[in-house]
Amino acid sequence: MKWNFDNPMLTKILSVIIAIFLFMFVSYEGKSHTDNVMSGSSSHSVTEVLTNIPVEVDIDNEKYFATGIPNAVSIRLDGPQSVITQTVVTQNFTVKTPDLTELGVGTHKIELFAEGFSEELNYNLSPAVATIRVEEKLSQQYDVDVNFDRDEYVARGYDVEGIDLSEKQVTISGAESTLSNIHEVKAIIQPNQTNITSSFNVEARVVVLNKAGEPLNVNVSPSTVDASVNITSRKKEVAINLEQTGKIDPRFDYNISLATNELPTLEVSGDYDKIAAMEEIAVDVDLSGITESTTREVPIVMPDGVDEMSRNKVNVKINVQRK
């Protein structure tokens, strides 16, 4: 068949066919290049460091107690980026000790290891080695003391009348050497508010401390107790007792009383025991040099044991009559 290339229609058809072929060729090359890049990216080796990974302790908790084991470790991972990314997201691995029950009582140097990593990953633990001590587990009961900072939480003018705990004793389990260092067992009461003026209930955490005030590595049951804190007012209404003082002119008779607008009592707060025993406050009225009836403003001296008074002065009516 003879092609007539001078035919315009034929030329256009050939141009379209050539353009389609070139487009398909370029698209295939681009896809091939992209696939190669993606394949190279997924197989590219990277490093990732994971921190604060808890250590799972393999031990018979009913019989033994181990000390010296790190609470957490760091892990360095090396491998394909896609595998590391999946590992970080799923966290489907554990860091463990060897079977400490098989090691038995004594001091041992152990190597920590990890389970659950892909075979495509290499890992390094830090720390990877620990010197531990395995001891027989003991359990004993201890009385619980109360730790509550009244000055930090209770409003002025109020006091703590008593604190009741749901459990007065707790069971503490741990190594014999650790239990021998127990100095204090306290229920720490920390309400979530200050300036408290009424009784309240709160959950208190039980802590076990040595002589230096440092927490000990033991198990406490129960680890929290319910505390009922009874708050009472240290405020009290007491009577005002006017007393004559000073050098009195013998030519006159004197009578003193509170002014008409003055209340006969005032409110005081302070030391709980002293306030409870207080019934009145003496107010000295100095009559020196007074020869005629008058009204005077007299200061109220704060008695021992009183921190605050509702007022610190009072108006006194002085009635003077010649004999």
TrEMBL record:
Show the Gene3D superfamilies listed in the entry: 2.170.120.30, YbbR-like domain
List the InterPro entries hit by this protein, alphabetically: c-di-AMP_regulator, YbbR
Keywords per UniProt = Membrane, Transmembrane, Transmembrane helix
Transmembrane portions of the chain: 9-28
Offer one Pfam family short name for this entry. Answer: YbbR
Q: Which organism is it from?
A: Dolosigranulum pigrum
Q: What name goes with this protein?
A: YbbR-like domain-containing protein
Specify the taxonomic lineage. Answer: Bacteria, Bacillati, Bacillota, Bacilli, Lactobacillales
